[in-house]
């Protein structure tokens, strides 16, 4: 069950984040904090805690579905999760990933599928992996009034071509071009994944739209993390860029262990938890 936190001096009311406000944050020098979410509970909690934007990422395939990579995620699955997330969110800008093979075939395919996402979920924008190679598709989405965030650097949907995920991308000329072309084509923001901080800084200076880094250093206009990673719920995953802001794994495991033990021992429920 979710808990609504009413506005108070320590939790002032916020106006909803929109695409124009997201872009303005760059000009105003306000950093943007984005996290992934896939369900009502966590999306509502993050929204109330003040996150600027929520990404319904296709990392869904790995952190929720337990798959080896993001490729199997379908359009229907991301729509299912995004609709649930949007129901919980009152302030943050909800951005939804276009899964593998839901936009690569043609700009028309991308507009049709992104249109479904906006119509069926209530989200504000979509994200697609690509820069120069997706310029026509970004332009088609923008022309259809669908706000689109580009994603350059390490692109998890290219896992088969790259031979794995997690490799730092260092081709400065190509990365800069990807970002500039994405902006020219009409993207309203760009995720920069796993690139050296110097290059991320250069890109951030070179474009007029916000850059949102993950493993791209402190000079981006904002940051995004996969929420399970920052909650300490991804045991064994410790890339250099990741800061776990909590260790939820240990208390959750201990809670389950205590419950199991007490049920096995006949300790729970005790008299205080029983109706006369
Ligand atoms: O799918 C996802 O969660 C993402 C982030 C890593 C940016 O694309």
Give a structural overview:
- The protein is α/β, with parallel strands linked by helices.
- The protein has two domains: 19-245, TIM Barrel (Alpha-Beta Barrel); 248-276, no CATH class.
- The chain is 40% helix and 14% strand.
- It has eleven helices and eight strands.
- It has helices at residues 19-28, 40-48, 60-63, 75-88, 107-121, 135-143, 159-162, 172-185, 197-206, 227-230, 249-265; strands at 32-36, 53-56, 93-97, 125-129, 148-153, 189-193, 211-214, 222-225.
- An eight-stranded parallel β-barrel has the order 1-2-3-4-5-6-7-8, surrounded by seven helices.
- Helix 2 links the parallel strand 1 (32-36) and strand 2 (53-56).
- Helix 5 crosses helix 6 and helix 6 packs parallel to helix 8.
- The longest helix is centred in the C-terminal third of the chain and has 17 residues, at 249-265.
- The radius of gyration is 20 Å and the shape is globular.
- It binds 3-methyl-2-oxobutanoic acid.
- The site of 3-methyl-2-oxobutanoic acid has 10 residues, from loops.
């Amino acid at each position: 069950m979710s808990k609504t936190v009413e506005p108070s001096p320590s939790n002032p009311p916020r106006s909803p984040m929109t695409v124009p406000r997201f872009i303005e944050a760059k000009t105003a020098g306000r950093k943007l904090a984005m996290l992934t979410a896939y369900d009502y509970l966590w999306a509502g909690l993050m929204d109330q805690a003040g996150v600027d934007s929520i990404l319904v990422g296709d990392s869904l395939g790995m952190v929720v579905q337990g798959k080896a990579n993001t490729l199997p995620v379908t359009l229907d699955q991301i729509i299912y999760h995004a609709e649930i997330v949007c129901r919980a969110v009152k302030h943050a800008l909800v951005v939804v990933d276009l899964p593998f093979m839901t936009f690569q075939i043609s700009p028309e395919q991308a507009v049709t599928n992104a249109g479904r996402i906006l119509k069926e979920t209530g989200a504000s924008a979509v994200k697609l992996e690509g820069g120069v190679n997706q310029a026509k598709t970004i332009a088609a989405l923008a022309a259809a009034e669908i706000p689109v965030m580009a994603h350059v650097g390490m692109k998890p949907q290219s896992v088969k071509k790259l031979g794995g995920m997690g490799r730092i991308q260092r081709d400065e000329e190509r990365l800069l071009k990807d970002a500039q072309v994405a902006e020219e084509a009409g993207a309203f923001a760009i995720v920069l994944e796993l690139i050296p901080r110097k290059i991320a800084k250069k890109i951030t200076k070179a474009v007029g739209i916000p850059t949102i880094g993950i493993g791209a250093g402190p000079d981006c206009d904002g940051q995004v993390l996969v929420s399970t990673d920052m909650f300490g719920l991804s045991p064994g995953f410790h890339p250099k860029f990741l800061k776990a802001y909590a260790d939820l794994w240990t208390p959750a495991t201990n809670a389950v262990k205590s419950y199991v033990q007490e049920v096995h021992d006949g300790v729970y429920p005790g008299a205080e938890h029983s109706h006369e």
